[in-house]
Design goal:
Blueprint: H1 9-23, H2 29-33, H3 39-51, H4 53-84, H5 92-118, H6 127-144, H7 146-154, H8 161-166
Helix pairs in contact: 1-4, 5-6
């Protein structure tokens, strides 16, 4: 039988800090873009900040913490995010509100180009107004619950039992 090693608290803290710093890499892209570097170097550094540096820092963090320390942090994060997940079944009113939140941004995005010909001022809407609509659309998935997510995700599967059961006549 192998004994489980105790995990040093200082290793967990140091490895966690390395992990957080690594995943904050993409936040430095605006700094790189505002620098006086050449376009090629800016592009390379920006790409590395998104797709290379976080992974390298993750490997370093695992090397510092060890596998057990990494698994401990990963399980804590998964447990925390699991509490934020939407419930499977929601009330009728919550479902209706979520459906409105889901449809409103889609409808406005679809109809806005046509409305511009009637209301030219709509073309000058600030970018943040569209960001708010995108945020409402994303939040609607949490309001609608897990059953809606299953329905939505089954649209993207070729062979889905849930989708086939929606069209069966009883």
């Amino acid at each position: 039988m192998s004994e489980e090693k105790t995990i040093s608290k200082s290793k967990i803290i140091f490895g966690g800090a390395i992990l957080i710093i690594g995943f904050c890499g993409p936040l430095f892209i605006p700094l790189v873009n505002s620098s006086g570097l050449s376009i090629g170097l800016k592009t390379t550094l920006s790409g590395l900040l998104v797709f290379g540096i976080p992974e390298v820092f993750m490997w370093i963090a695992v090397a510092v913490m060890g596998r057990q320390g990494y698994e401990l942090i990963k399980n804590k994060i998964i447990r925390y995010l699991g509490r934020l997940a939407p419930p499977d079944h929601v009330s009728l009113w919550r479902y209706r509100i979520g459906l409105g939140m889901f449809c409103l941004p889609l409808l406005l995005g679809w109809i806005q180009p046509y409305l511009i010909s009637f209301f030219p001022n709509l073309e000058a809407l600030p970018l943040w107004s569209f960001a708010i609509l995108d945020f409402i659309f994303l939040v609607s998935f949490f309001v609608l619950g897990g059953v809606f997510w299953d329905k939505f995700s089954s649209l993207f599967r070729y062979s889905s039992d849930r989708l086939a059961s929606c069209f069966t006549i009883n």
